[in-house]
Amino acid sequence: MSLYKRKDGEEQPYWKFGQYKVRLPFIHHKLEAPEIIQGMVIFTVGLSMVEIMTSVMGLSYEAALTITILNQFLMLVPSLMGVPFVGGFVTALIPVLILFLNGYDPGPETIQAVIAVQIVMAVIFLLFGLTSMGEKLVKNLPASLKAGILIGAGITAIMAEIQPGGRLPATPIAITVGALLCLYMMFSLSFKRLAKRSRIVGLIASYGIVPAIFFAVFIGWIVGEYQRQTWNGVLRSHHLLLYGKSRHLSLAFRRLKCLLVRFQLHCLAM
Question: What is the span of the domain harbouring residue 264?
Fold first, then answer.
């Protein structure tokens, strides 16, 4: 249920906030069960950053989890403000960023380096947006180059999973079954026809890849590849102040002077 009702053929109700159109759940639109469940499950994808922050940056698990959850929450802001974009990690940058961070000791130095990278990226994105350079760059880049960047990020992610120490060698049955089921549900014409004929299958299809993930986890439990995990930690407010410490932030600005040079050297060393 929602407080405001959309009339047929009209735009979804909203509150005007400057150039933005604010739409809040239960007020301007109702929440659908598939959207809620998919959001709760797909939210765990972003938790992969916890491993990077604990191993590369030297953060504690609780601090990394708190930062990730805050970041995931802030990704909702564009859609709430009516902006037709979905925030997310710059996935293609992660391998290069990890290589860059290997030049620092895990701990305060790495945190300062990450803040410096974030500031540089924020300035670049701001300039691209204000000057429309971003649109021109995307249009003028060859399609082959753009495809190579996207495919390269996917290949990097797959290679990280299938190489020794990855998750595929550790849980081959669960991941293989889940991947095959996901591919069948997403791209099979026979499954689409079945979803049109059967109400139950249609309901399952409305949840996207979530059923495949649940089934993979269930299979993993049955064959013993996954163990039931419990977490007794709590999210503490002082973890949110980690990036706000003036010492880290001021040193991050100092690192901006040599950041671009070191970043280029690391890229050339790849």
Answer: 32-171+226-268
